[in-house]
Amino acid sequence: MPTNLMTPTPWHTRFAPSPTGTMHLGNARTAILNWLMARKHQGSFSVRLEDTDRERSTFASEASILSSLAWMQLEPDHPVVRQSTRLERYQNMARALMDKGLAYPCFCTEAELQKDREMAASKGLPPRYTGKCSTLSPEEIHKKMEQGHPYTIRFRVDQNIPGIEFTDLIKGLMNIPIQAFGDFVILRSNGWPSYNFAVVIDDQDMGITLVLRGEDHLTNTARQILLYKALDMVPPRFAHHGLLVDTNQHKLSKRTGAKSIPELMRAGIHPLALVHYLAGLSGAVKGKHIVGSLDELVERFNPRRLGRGNAVFQMQELEQLSRTYWHKLDTEQLLPHLEELASLGAPWHNLSAQQQKALIATVQPNANCGHDFAPLLTPLLRLQACYDPEAIELVQRQPNGHIIRTFLELVLDFTALSGHPADTPLPLDEIGRILKETSTRAQVTGKELYLPLRMGLMGTSQGPEIKQLFTVLTCEQIIRRMQDACVLAGIARD
Q1: Is residue 281 in a domain?
Q2: pLDDT digits over 356-385, tens only?
Q3: Model pTM?
Q4: Burial tier of 210 (Cβ tally within 10 Å: 0-12, 13-18, 19+)
Q5: 222 occurs within a structural domain
Q6: Would the annotation count 254 as a binding residue?
Q7: What residue numbers bound the domain in which 259 lies?
Q8: What is the pLDDT of residues 26-63, one digit of tens each?
């Protein structure tokens, strides 16, 4: 059954993580779906850091989350909102609810609350606040405050209503029984807001029109709808997608070995592959054909196909899709994701943009992740080759030394006569002529011709095909490497 997420009006969405650790895959999937929804409907995407957990929230986690979003290119349309800067706003709204009799101070200690939880558990009941402080008179409240008793502010839940009913744009009509929770805290004793209270005020102030998140927030949604009504606010629409699970249907977590986004970055996963894969697990992106950009992914994104069930994450599938992206994207699309090439130094930076692209295209078929490019390019940037034992043995075997020397002589003759620049590759037509002439003089063809030349040029059997090597190695490199190979073969040039 299709969802009701298609609309002619813009969706204003948000991603609201808590900066208490690195971003995990489930959070990333929620961020991706919200970003795609906003772009699909010409809306806006916001980021809010819910940093009200003073003990666990850190600037390092905040930086990691924002870095992960930037790596996936999920840029927000507005400045990042931090809940820790909005305390006065939450406190004022809590007082407004108290003035209306919809909230009250609770002086219960943690020890008292724990005793009530244990009592409920012994009776097989879910933990719920007993409402002990809800009946305190104004005089009793004033006295306790005068005596300096710490207190929280609780929202008064009307237990006479049958439940909280709302239409979920993915799951359909939902009804959460009011017995699922009692009066809940909206402001802690330290003046900081609870999760449910802060997000209601934030979403209203930020103009959020769609709250798209995991189904584990369904009970939170019920509480938030009660708060919207009490605050005389129009709630946004809600949509709850299934959770990200492993092949055993267990929710993905660090405890089950799920990798975080920074770990996937370090593993060389292509960011567009990750966004594509996680969006595709929802069922809203058809097919596994790679996309050239996030704009193309937006075009293929169909919100009506967002699935209600859980999505099974398989690392092998992501790695395979990532390899496909590294292999098939053109060099213009690859370059922004190859920051590690800066480590190659002057030999790389002194090349023209055209030469750099040619080198990347040469090694691309052998690169399975982003970290493979620098090691694959390094041998192509050196003047000389490093010969492994297999290459040395093959070069020294006759007639291979003779083949290498013949090829070298033809290259030297061409450069001497033509004045071809030493810092550029040989012309393609000249490569063909020299190879043909080498074949004729040495009386070898096919593998017997190409393998010795390859070993002489690269010093290993691994890497790009020899025809590609000739398009990126300069004349100077070819000559120096073949001279070294002749020395290895014990053959001096006449």
Answers
A1: yes
A2: 899 999 999 999 999 999 999 999 999 999
A3: 0.88
A4: buried
A5: no
A6: yes
A7: 1-81+242-329
A8: 999 999 999 999 999 999 999 999 999 888 999 999 99
